[in-house]
Amino acid sequence: MAAYNSHRGSPPPSQNPMNLLHVLLGLLLFGAGVTTGVIFKSTSITGKREIATGSGNVVATRLSAGTSEVSGAMNPEAGGGGITSEAKLQQKDFATLLKELGDASSSSNVTKSVAAITVCVQNFDPSQIRRALAQVEALKGLDQRQMLLSMLLNRWAETDTQAALTHAQGLANMLERNQAIQGVIGVWAQRDPAAALAWARKLPEGILKREAMNNVVTQMARENPAEALEIASAQPVTEIRNQMISKAVTQWAARDAAAAADYVTAMSDGPLKKQVTQSLLSVLGRKNPEVAISLIEQLPAGPAQDQAIGNLGFQWMNADPKGAMDWAAQQTDPNVKVKAMCGILQVMVQNDPKGALDFIQSMPVGPDRDIQFTLALAHMAQNDAGGALTYAQTFPASAQRDNSIRQIVQNCNDTATVIDWLNRQTDQSLREKILPDVIGSGAMEPRQALALARSLPEGGARDQALASLCSAMMQNDPRGAIALSQTLAPGVAKDNALIGMSSIVIRSDPNQAIQLVNGVGNEATRVSVLQNLAANWLRQDHAAAAQWVNNSALPQNIKETLLNQTPSPKPAK
Questions:
Q1: Residue 127 carries which DSSP code?
Q2: Distance between CA atoms of 134 and 151, rounded to whole angstroms?
Q3: Using H for helix, E for strand and C for coil, what is the string for 404-418?
Q4: Tens digit of pLDDT for each residue in 445-454?
Q5: What is the pTM of this model?
């Protein structure tokens, strides 16, 4: 394989927004995560180089309301005597902290909520943690409870690991207990990895031990990746063990990217090496693209190398757009160039669809280029449907052009712009191809959609547009949809309309769904669809469906197959 060339930039750290609960639990319980690769071939490469949505206010109210109860319990003279000024001050501070914690949990802004909760938890004095935990444990059935328990216990573990661990082990809920233990172990492993490792090794075999070992190894890898890898490799062969190895290697790469890459290169070929390679490339692509290129050179030509090239383009583009685009431009092998550009375009279409379209023009002609045009236009259509349609129409008449326009129609919410564009079309053939997609989207008022469909000349395109309208109307106007379907000429379009309508009502009214399918003209299609409908009905209501099957005109062998289907167990009351 020819050498890879690189154009090195200065990649800033990348950040990806995540669900709040995932972010917090990820940070608290498992440390640095493994970034999965982006699937994208080469032979030679030139260049080197909520959480509180709806329930958050409940958290704030309950935490604040419970302050006096906890304070009273902590006051030996509650109900009769006074308390010292110092005690009053501490009580006020604790109440304020609880209120702030509840307010932070109730924010619908994920980023702000994460930051605010983190600050609130850090503001608790370790001596106040036990009291705060009592309040949080009183929250029933809320996602915040599990998150806040872990955060508070982690804070406690910073000064008293054993007390935090004992408390975590005493939690009644198994999921909360195991996750809380993992969080405390993570803090312990940062402070004293040898002691945390010794404790984890004494756990009985099972998921808790495997996750604890995973947590300890992840923390150890930051300071001693070689030892962490040795420990991870000695674990039983499970997916968690493979994750440990991947994490240890990626942590190693943060300290010595070249050494980590050498380690992976020396691994035996197999699924584990592929997994670790993709994890490592996800890190190297952002910070050490030259090392990533060297690692990709060691991969055999084929799907794994294709994926790695696209992954590198994606990660590099996120960190250093100019460097990534210069690197892709240097490639002389058309296949390599395409894979690199595909990775880069995954970022561009999200941030700059028009720029992505210009970039795609420089790609070698082929299926990948066509796909990228379609994806970029679909993204552009979300904010500029008219611009996307105008751009797509500059393509030569072809199936690719028509498919791109269909994707635009299906991905935009600007129905008025699409209809205006359609009405201005002089290419009747194109109009007939696209109109069924517009009507089938369900975004148009039914009368307007019906008028448009009937404006088409008699024939297949008109029937297909009317069939699409039938399916779109079925949810809100089933009588109108059924009546309209009866006006269709017998043929594929009418059959498709009846089948589409039946799929919408099969759960709510199986009998109606079957009546609709009985109108399908093609016998083979009708029997096949009826069999599928009956199979679904049997899972919902076995007795009623079985009675229909026995009385139906279905072939005997199909009846027997359906009736031998094991009934689904009814949910426990």
A1: G
A2: 14
A3: HHHHHHHHCCCHHHH
A4: 777 778 777 7
A5: 0.51
Spell 154-167 as b/e; 16+ CB within 10 A means b: bbbbbeebebbbeb
Identify the three-state secondary structure at position 480.
helix
The DSSP output letter for 126 is: G
Tokens found for residue 531:
């069999």
With bands split at pLDDT 50, 70 and 90, how would you rate the model's confidence at 6? Answer: very low
Please state, in angstroms and rounded to a whole number, the distance separating the CA atoms of residues 510 and 540: 10
Distances (CA, A) of 120 to 87, 96, 97, 143: 21, 10, 7, 18
* Residue listed under structure tokens 């206010």: 57
Amino acid at 417: T
In tens, the pLDDT along 529-568 reads 999 999 888 888 888 889 999 999 899 999 988 888 766 5
Please count the other Cβ atoms lying within 10 Å of the Cβ belonging to residue 242. Answer: 18
Q: What are the structural domains, with CATH classification, of the chain? A: 446-573 (1.25.40)
Sole residue written with tokens 């899972």: 539
- The single-letter DSSP state of residue 128 is G
Q: Check: CB of residue 135 under 8 Å from CB of residue 98.
A: yes
Which structure tokens are listed for 181?
A: 């233990």
**How far does CA 395 lie from the centroid of its chain?**
33
